[in-house]
Amino acid sequence: MTNADPQELAKFSELAHRWWDAESEFKPLHQINPLRLDWINALSPLAGQKVLDVGCGGGILTDSMARKGAIALGIDLATKPLRVAQLHAMEAGTENVSYQEIAVEALAEQRPGEFDTVTCMEMLEHVPDPASVVRALGTLVKPGGWVFLSTLNRNFKAFMLAIVGAEYLLKMLPAGTHEYARFIKPAELAQMCRDAGLELRSAKGLGYNPLTQRYSIGGDTDVNYMIACRRPL
Hints:
Elements: H1 6-14, H2 27-43, E1 50-54, H3 60-67, E2 71-76, H4 79-92, E3 97-101, H5 104-110, E4 115-121, H6 130-140, E5 141-152, H7 156-169, H8 186-195, E6 199-209, E7 214-218, E8 224-230
Parallel strand pairs: 1-2, 1-4, 2-3, 4-5
Antiparallel strand pairs: 5-8, 6-7, 6-8
Helix pairs in contact: 2-3, 5-6, 6-8
């Protein structure tokens, strides 16, 4: 069975045509992308690397990593967002970027240890078995390579800010985008990474100021957070 929720795939497919509209439901992704891209590039300089973006959707991060000089592959199981990603790459003239509709576990069987850097952003909270995804990430990355993940913490603050605040009060995201029970505590994600043979190197929080409407990276991992790991040599 594929490690995917059909309702989740349908949810993002319905909005696929709006993926590259920076004022659409995907505005938060466009706003945080430069921050996460710079964080990834600082730890694992992307130029000349072979990189994989898992759960790439419409390709916002995938495209930007290619523009940093990486040979980038984005994978997803939602057909419509992938088509949008491919069309955007053609229209924007982005080089060295490609997309494939395949499960990460299947790709791990086909291409183990092939990628210098692997990213999986804003995806783990949308799949039935996040640990299976993390194991596949650990298989796909080369020894010495980096794996970057982001997701949402599971606590009252995250529920109030990420769901009540972002989806219902500020309407930054469509209502129903997230399901609280699928949020993952940092300690839980760290254990998944260790079980996948990865060493935790860095953890950062992603904060939002509703007054300035700006995002920032810091040490507060209470709500949105990112983890960087390496596969030992």
